[in-house]
Amino acid sequence: MENKWSGVDRLFLNSLLTNDENLDYVLEANRAAGLPQIDVSPLQGKLLHLLAKVKGAKRILEIGTLGGYSTIWLGKALPADGKLYSLEAHPYFAEVARDNIARAGLQDKADVIIGNALDTLPSLLEQNRNIFDFIFLDADKPSYPDYLKWSIKLAAPGAIIIADNVVREGEVANPQSTDERVQGIQQFLQLIANEPRIDATAVQTVGSKGYDGFVLAYVK
Predict the structure, then answer these.
(1) What's the pLDDT score for residue 22?
(2) 56: left (phi over 0), alpha (psi -120 to 50) or beta
(3) Rounded Cα gap, residues 106 and 9, in angstroms
(4) Sheet-wide strand order for 198-205
């Protein structure tokens, strides 16, 4: 089945992404730098880009930069006066991301903040950077519950929150899972279910990245 999913991905990729949207150079730079190959797929990157555009996002928060691939997709959706802050715990990953962001011409729009996100998120709040209208979570899964709490604090009314990698090959439905990543997602989902300020849905995905999915949430 994965071969079939990947084949359909290639068809959509060739049909729906234009040549000037090709960010393969970022993926190649990440591979050359030895980064983990866990970026969103090109089609998923385009989805983030379109969601941010549809939202009319002017201030974007990303938790988990890696090499900046999703950062660039999101940054390209910003208007001239837009700003994106991306939080990355690993200094080397952040260095690679900054190079990629500069190559994409987004160095004035996208700032990479180095440090554990749970340490740097309070500083965003203190600096009055709490009017984010689009938030993308794609970092360590055990911390997703905490990231959700901070996202609500930092979100403007009507903000969109996207959380990636929430299906874990279906293991998220296993209440006996001992995987701390799965447990983090399960706790994250339970928090959403009990949070009156959030309206959310989830979508399962298949494709070149295997079987996974994302949560899309709206902050009331």
Answers:
(1) 79
(2) left
(3) 27
(4) 110-114, 83-88, 59-63, 132-137, 155-164, 212-219, 198-205
CATH of the domain at 28: 3.40.50.150
Report the alpha-carbon distance of residue 157 to residue 154 in Å, rounded: 10
Instruction: List all residues 6 or more positions away from 129 whose beta carbon is below 8 Å from its beta carbon.
Output: 59, 85, 154
Confidence tier at 129 by pLDDT (50, 70, 90): low
- Tens of pLDDT, residues 29-86: 999 999 999 999 999 999 999 999 999 999 999 999 999 999 999 999 999 999 999 9
Total domains in the fold of the chain: 1
116: exposed, middle or buried (Cβ count in 10 Å: 0-12, 13-18, 19+): middle
Tens-digit pLDDT profile for residues 50-62: 999 999 999 999 9
- Single out the residue of 24, 18, 209 nearest to residue 100, CA to CA: 24
Q: Would strands 110-114 and 83-88 be described as parallel, antiparallel, or unpaired? A: parallel
Rounded Cα distance between 89 and 68, Å, is 13
Q: What is the pTM of this model?
A: 0.96
Residue numbers of the domain that contains 122: 2-219
